[in-house]
Design brief:
heterodimer, A: 389 residues, alpha+beta, Cytochrome-c3 Hydrogenase, chain B, 3-stranded antiparallel β-sheet, 15 helices, B: 155 residues, alpha/beta, 3 helices
């Protein structure tokens, strides 16, 4: 038998149990030596069929389901959905409720960015930064828990308003927490800008030019780190962002370092916004009345999630259930940029490049399927309820 | 004029006064809906939007109008500032096909693959027709977001 000369390219499957992330996603990476030549992504491991399930639930039930699309940005999903339903029903949301929505959204952004900072630092092998940033993140988690009773799915929104009010005691706690977080953010910004070891992992890695970011359709901090001014809070202000304008944070370098800096600088903007809102919190009602049945119509709702633009399309049909709810999350927009950017990099940089966009797979995938042996088992809603009980 | 108004004015000029026969409506102050006559018009209009640098493709929505209506709708949402310009295509439920936009807008690919899996809309010219979201052993010809989807086929 003649020995064949092997071709130098090699394909490495990474995932679905991903070494870098706590969520499932499959990447097929072709390498030539250490250099990546092609990346293929396969999603759907956390696909739960939420869009379909929404068509069989009423507007109120839908909100609870939508909040559970993602554990990190649950509030923003509910906000996008509420805006759409309120728009369809023609309901005015009281100003105080709008302000509180903004407050929770910005607190959520703080916790999400801190979480990301920790995960990204961990990927870079900088576990000290990971532990410190997650310790500090507890401050904002406590604030959210004190406000809503929950650390994760706060469920602060109601159709037509919010459930929770802010009193003086809570306001004091928030201001105190922000003071601590602000000081820490200055420190972290200093670290990501000056730590030599860290810069070697971030500076000049995964560079996305402004043109590329535009063509690849990047959104959120990933786009803003490449100088693309895309922030829904600025471009199309919604809710209380109309009264409290946001200053857009841009960086031009487009590398991982710039993505760190953009997110950290955005935190200062969030602190400023929260203080401004607390100072000018309008008095009044918390909830407007939303009818159970909503006349047939369609609307689009766009909000700025911590990871970028979150797009909702809601179609009503006159009943108490939506005809269709389409959810387009920011991660899918940014995923393409990873696949394209990875080419030409060292394999070891891939986890960092992937983490750089702050991917959220549960947002991205949206059936409950349980595999036992080779049988694909599908549970009905009743079975699932019994299973969960 | 704000950026949003500029974008809407330019888009309505394009849709109404250019050669394509589109039906435009303004359902909400910040939205422009253009129903295209034929799928052949899609590529030229998208090219024109790109040339004019009018917004970016924010999402592609599939809608099933039901078995009685026998039609699907595909909505391409382009956003510029607060403006949302929607290109609307009506397709037969049996064998629907739309051309792929990925040559013009690379980011369209992921949206098109989702549309294909969930609604069974064939995307002509799609370079990566593999599944993105649904499991590998998902039966062929079963589309979960169509109104007549019956989960019992999976058992």
């Amino acid at each position: 038998m003649q020995k064949e000369k092997t071709v130098s390219s090699f394909t490495i499957p990474i995932g679905p149990q991903h070494p870098a992330l706590k969520e499932p996603g499959h990447f097929l990476i072709t390498v030539d030596g250490e250099i990546v030549t092609k990346t293929v992504v396969r999603l759907g491991y956390a696909h739960r069929g939420i869009e379909r399930a929404l068509e069989e639930r009423n507007y109120v039930q839908c909100m609870y389901l939508l909040e559970r699309i993602c554990g990190i940005c649950s509030h923003i999903h509910a906000t996008a959905y509420c805006h759409a339903v309120e728009q369809l029903a023609g309901v005015e949301v009281p100003p105080r409720a709008q302000a509180i929505r903004l407050l929770v959204a910005e607190l959520e952004r703080i916790h999400s960015h801190f979480l990301w900072l920790g995960v990204a630092a961990h990927e870079a092998g900088f576990d000290t930064l990971f532990m410190y940033s997650w310790r500090d993140r507890e401050t904002v988690m406590d604030l959210l828990e004190n406000m809503t009773g929950n650390r994760v799915n706060y469920s602060a929104n109601l159709l037509g308003g919010v459930k929770f009010d802010v009193d003086d005691a809570l306001e004091g706690e928030i201001l105190k927490g922000l003071e601590f977080l602000e000081e820490r953010t200055h420190h972290y910004l200093d670290v990501v800008k000056t730590d030599i070891m860290f810069l070697q992992r971030t500076s000049g890695i995964g560079v996305m030019t402004r043109r590329q970011a535009e063509v690849l359709g990047a959104v959120g901090p990933t786009a803003r780190a490449s100088g693309v001014a895309r922030d829904i809070r600025v471009e199309a202000p919604y809710g209380a962002y109309v009264e409290h304008p946001v200053n857009i944070i841009l960086e031009q370098d487009g590398d991982l370092r710039a993505r760190f800096i953009v997110r950290l600088r955005e935190l200062f903007e969030s602190y400023r916004l929260i203080r401004e809102v607390l100072e000018t919190l309008p008095a009044g009602e918390l909830v407007g009345r939303v009818p159970r049945r909503i006349k047939a119509s369609e609307t689009v709702s766009r909000v700025e999630a911590p990871r970028g633009e979150l797009f909702y399309f809601v179609k009503s049909n006159g009943s108490d259930k939506p005809e269709r709810v389409k959810v387009r999350t920011p991660t899918i927009c940014n995923m393409l940029s990873v696949i394209k950017l990875a080419v030409g990099h060292q394999l070891a940089d891939i986890p960092m490049i992937l983490t750089g966009i702050d991917p959220c797979f549960s947002c991205n995938d949206r059936s409950v399927q349980i595999r036992s042996g080779d049988n694909l088992q599908v549970l009905t809603w009743e079975q699932l309820r019994q299973f969960g009980a | 004029m704000t950026k949003t108004e500029e974008a809407l004015a330019l888009a309505s000029d394009m849709m109404e006064n250019w050669a394509w026969e589109t039906i435009t409506v303004r359902p909400e102050p910040n939205r422009l809906d253009a129903t295209l006559k034929s799928t052949d018009d899609l590529i030229p209009i998208v090219v024109a939007l790109r040339v004019k640098r009018l917004g970016y493709l924010s999402a592609i929505t599939g809608l099933d109008l039901g078995v009685e209506a026998g039609e699907l709708e595909v909505l391409y949402h382009f956003c510029a500032a607060a403006a949302v310009i929607t290109l609307r295509l009506r397709l037969p439920r049996e064998a629907p096909v739309v051309p792929s936009l990925s040559e013009i807008i690379p980011s369209a690919e992921a949206f098109e693959r989702e549309l294909r899996e969930m609604f069974g809309v064939e995307i002509s010219g799609l370079k990566t027709p593999e599944r993105l979201y649904l499991p590998d052993d998902w039966p062929e010809g079963v589309y979960p977001l169509r109104k007549d989807f019956d989960p019992s086929v999976l058992q």
